[in-house]
Write a structure and sequence with these properties.
By secondary structure, this protein is an all-beta fold. It contains no helices and seven strands. Strands 4-3-6-7 form a four-stranded antiparallel beta sheet, with no helix packed on it. It has a three-stranded antiparallel beta sheet with strand order 1-2-5, with no helix packed on it.
């Protein structure tokens, strides 16, 4: 049984078809609760950002069977929170290489996986509401 009546739409809390959301914190015995909340945003958009373009290997160095790689790409248009880089393996799985707010990234040591002909690397833009773009891809032949 709901003990709390729904809030009034007259106050402008919601648009038609949208349910109000709320959080109620109560300490034991009705005591006050201290709660620190960082930035909070509610957005109506769920679309994905545009993909970055032009991902390319700008430099490599090989030592002891590992290859260090420098990558660069062109910014995705529109607001972007960060870029995430992944390595895609021949079986379809992927490995997170790292994230950056810039348009360049250094991978300290890639090793050939099984019998792959090239390391496949992709970069994705992450938008403010944490939606992710389609990838921009490049390959590093072994």
């Amino acid at each position: 049984m709901n003990r709390y009546p729904p809030p009034s739409r007259a106050a402008g809390c919601c648009r038609p078809g949208r349910a109000p959301r709320g959080v109620r914190l109560t300490g034991r015995g009705g005591a006050a609760v201290a709660w620190r909340l960082g930035a909070l945003a509610v957005r109506d958009t769920t679309g994905s950002p545009a993909a970055p373009s032009g991902l390319k290997v700008t430099d490599t160095a090989t030592a002891d069977g590992a290859t260090a790689v420098r990558l660069s790409w062109r910014r995705a248009p529109g607001p972007v929170r960060r870029y995430e880089l992944y390595r895609r393996f021949p079986d379809g799985t992927r490995e997170f290489l790292g994230g950056t707010c810039g348009t360049a990234f250094y991978v300290p040591g890639l090793r050939r996986a099984r019998n792959e002909a090239a390391a496949r690397i992709e970069v994705r833009a992450v938008h403010e509401p944490f939606t992710v773009s389609q990838p921009s891809r490049t390959q590093l032949p072994w």
